[in-house]
Amino acid sequence: xxxxxxxxxxxxxxxxxxxxxxxxxxxxxxxxxxxxxxxxxxxxxxxxxxxxxxxxxxxxxxxxxxxxxxxxxxxxxxxxxxxxxxxxxxxxxxxxxxxxxxxxxxxxxxxxxxxxxxxxxxxx
Length: 124
Description:
Blueprint: H1 5-28, E1 36-43, E2 50-54, E3 60-64, E4 76-81, E5 89-91, H2 93-123
Antiparallel strand pairs: 1-2, 1-4, 2-3, 4-5
Helix pairs in contact: 1-2
């Protein structure tokens, strides 16, 4: 196996990661930016967990929490609420985790590109 395949693999892998992270980053921006951040609290346990929050009009509303969602059992939970229809809400934590993952993959892709380019330049 020629030694130049290793840096070429880094270049290709880094380019794929940068491309994927860039497209995911643009997809994350598609979340409506006018949704209002609110704080709610977890009600119930197990499969019937719900997050209760106050709408901008002052009504108490609840949304179902998916079983695999990581929300604290006690304490505040971040939500985004649609200002046109306050009954539409989504958890804020998955958006934060997705943004962090995309940022880390973008950084890893750039590092792989740099390592591959430097290694290829040194071997050439």
